[in-house]
Amino acid sequence: MHLSKLEQVTVLPLVAILITAIIGISLDQNQYAYSRSPKTNTTANLAGSGVELIDIHPSPSNVKAGSNFELLATVVNNSTDTIVLPAGRCDSPLTAFFTRNVIIRQDQFQGCTAASSPFELKKGVEVTVVGPVPGTLYQAIKAGETPATATVYYLTENGQPGNVTKPFVFVIS
Asked: Where are the beta strands (DSSP E) in the chain?
């Protein structure tokens, strides 16, 4: 069965959530993707796909134990082609795994009806994305340094799935 690009972009975040659930580790549309010009100090990952993940941090920036939060990260497309990211209120290409101090919960989510077109990220451009997808909550449960790994899922111009993963650390107060 051959899926269209839109169907593939919609499936990738769902696959990421299912993988997280299987492992057992326990809004306004413009907020999820907006473009900005590349920073001059950004470096390409020459050994990989050329897609890089930088500036990963929680929102709000001061996460307190007991509160829910989101993650923001910048995706830099240093590849030779355009990539396609899920975008909009109902989709996010960003997921995370937390080593400690955070649980990932599924909210009583009624479904999302505001389908959005995928976001095309041209080569040499970067975009800030927000995660997790609607219906998934990141909840801080304990204060302290919190190691984590963020992953962004995307499609290449020829429809091949790709992802980039990067560790990061933040502090819960």
From this structure: 33-36, 51-59, 68-77, 83-85, 94-98, 102-106, 119-121, 126-131, 136-140, 144-156, 161-172
